[in-house]
Amino acid sequence: MKTIISNVRLGEERDKTTSSVYIENQKITAIAPFDSLKEEAQTTYNIINGHGHLLIPGMIDVHIHGANNYDMMDGTTKSIQEVSKKCAETGCTSFLVTSVSSSLEDLLAMIHSVKKVIGHEEGAKIVGLHLEGPYLNVEKKGMQNPKFLRHADFDELDRIFAEAGDLIKMMTIAPELPGGIELIAYLKQKGVVVAIAHSNATYEEAQTAFKAGASHITHCFNAMPTIHHRSPGLVTAALEEDEVSLQAIVDGVHLHPGIVRLMHKIKGPDKIVLTTDALQAMGVGDGSYLFGGHHVTVTDGIARLKDGTLASSTVTMNKSLQHSVNFGIPLTDSIAMASTTPATILNLTQLGKIAPGYDADLVLLDGEFDVVKTFIKGNICKVS
Q: Which residues constitute the catalytic centre (predicted)?
């Protein structure tokens, strides 16, 4: 099918010029000024009027656990499909199915379900797996269940990779634990992005991990030591290292707006990734949930354990984008952080940009950053 998404804004909010995006065979083929749209195109293209709304590349969530009352660790294909649909509804067109620390059996069951769903998603596409744990530091466990936290086990990893193959795209570890540096080498050899969090790594230990190949920080500033002027820690080492990228949960809870602006000022949009870290309360609302073996209460959209510890988030990608802009990050940079940068980090070379040759994964947003339409490979995604 040949489609034109016409009369859309592609640039900054103050830019009143509009464009038309041409799509054929699931790819973007051309971008042209809206006023150049010829009348004869109406006979050969399906024309969708964007009514001056903002069109952005489909957002990519590298860290999401659940949505719509479904936790993807429950081992069912239904849960993964529900998250896929909610992602598409909220402007996310690709995502990494993300685990929490668990038994090996539960992790393998989740991976098995992902393999059944991938290629048959009802909404956003699965572009791989993000294993958050289980090789994490109990001292910075956050909402991770300490019952399942352990040191690197390479026999166990061999079994995990035997089941998952090259679906594992990212793994979050604590490099200061025994076997941590060897684990980085193991994962790098398999082409996995090595991320750090739930870690008590010192500045020096973090530097060693980066030299070994770790290159990403999961939910930066959360579940890791704070910055101290005589004990700078993991965060300072990550901010100082040019090649290390950072995840940001921009929900107005996990990070103060000033911290978001500081991260952006130091790293720029090419090294910051907006992510949700959402649990099954995303799209549902306040209430009680069982997540990662914990009872979690969501009040006013904030998820916490009984002791007050933050337990993931309920933010969606479109609202994370809105918060980022409201916090003072330029629109084009915020879009890059939600779309282009995660695509680059995951080496998804056909995603993350509105340009000829790229997949037509696109999102139309209104002035409140609510999703008007989501396109996956040029097709309107109807999931509600």
A: 277 (proton donor/acceptor)
Residue pLDDT, tens place only, 209-226? 999 999 999 999 999 999
Q: Where are the alpha helices (DSSP H) in 292-345?
A: 317-326, 331-335, 341-345
pTM above 0.85, yes or no: yes
Q: What is the pLDDT of residues 17-57, one digit of tens each?
A: 789 999 999 999 999 888 777 666 667 888 999 999 999 99
Task: Please state, in angstroms and rounded to a whole number, the distance separating the CA atoms of residues 218 and 171.
Answer: 9
Give the pLDDT score at 177: 98
Q: Which CATH superfamily is domain 2-55+356-380 in?
A: Urease, subunit C, domain 1 (2.30.40.10)
| Whether the Cβ atoms of residue 137 and residue 149 lie closer than 8 Å to each other | yes
For residues 361 and 23, the answer to whether their CB atoms sit within 8 Å is: no
| Residue 198, marked binder | yes
* CATH code, residues 58-346: 3.20.20.140
Phi/psi for 96 (5° steps) reads: -100, 120
On whether 219 is known to bind a ligand per the annotation, the reply is: yes
pLDDT band at 70 (very low <50, low <70, confident <90, very high): very high
DSSP lists the bridge partners of residue 183 as none
Are 319 and 368 within 8 A, CB to CB? no
Which of 63, 15, 6 minimizes the C-alpha distance to 35? 6
Whole-number pLDDT of residue 351: 98
Give the strand pairing for 27-33 and 19-24.
antiparallel
Compute CA distances 28 → 19, 46, 295, 334, 349, whole Å: 13, 14, 45, 22, 14
Contact (Cβ atoms closer than 8 angstroms) between residue 5 and residue 21: yes
Q: Residue ranges of the domains in the chain?
A: 2-55+356-380, 58-346
**Catalytic annotation, pick one of 61, 71, 251, 277:** 277
Does the annotation list 130 as a binding residue? no
Higher pLDDT, 238 or 285: 238
Entry field: residues in the chain:
384
Alpha-helical segments (H) within the chain = 41-44, 77-89, 104-117, 154-164, 180-189, 203-212, 233-240, 257-267, 317-326, 331-335, 341-345
